[in-house]
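A common beginner's mistake is to predict each chain separately and then try to dock the pieces by hand. The better habit, illustrated here, is to supply every component at once so that their relative placement is modeled jointly.
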Amino acid sequence: MEIFHYQDVEAKRAEKGTFGVMVRWLITKEIGAENFAMRLFEMEPGGYSPFHGHPWEHEVFVLEGKGIVVDEKEERKFGAGDVIFISSNEKHQFKNNGEKTVKFLCLVPYTHEYVRAH
Amino acid sequence: MEIFHYQDVEAKRAEKGTFGVMVRWLITKEIGAENFAMRLFEMEPGGYSPFHGHPWEHEVFVLEGKGIVVDEKEERKFGAGDVIFISSNEKHQFKNNGEKTVKFLCLVPYTHEYVRAH
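With all components supplied together, the output reads:
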């Protein structure tokens, strides 16, 4: 068993194409998670992720803040307690259009080498 | 993309051996999640899960409340913002020894038929 507070995991600048976004890789293959990884994102007001797609899904739970999430068909508001599922290859973008930091969990499967490389 | 509030998903009594525990299956294979499922547990004060093990891991994020988690070696306190990883086949038990409902996310891989059957 491993137990720790999320703030005990280093926050790193999220990858290229994001603005004002930090990520903490909370549960990874390094501690024995073979199937999927848990990350926590912190997005400052005005921050965003790129509008992009990739061949793995996202399972998201919004912890704090308000923002919008965009796909190719629509733009939806989100807030604390919302659950978001982005299918594999579905283009998507998260934006913080609120006044507080947005915090959300975003889990990804270790089915692709690109994810395993993190 | 799917987006909904966690409270819009029905809470069901958690399985045999639990006491005072409700579960909402938030993200499942039914909405296209092929690799892992996101569930949200609500455990009332005095509630617990059985001390048990199984061949799949748990990735847990504590949203609210305080409790203890037990494995074969130790007993640890947990609270909001804590991250818990239970390895496959590691025996474990969650207990709410606080005065408020404990809420936590617990994600499981679809690597076993038992999980897929839910």
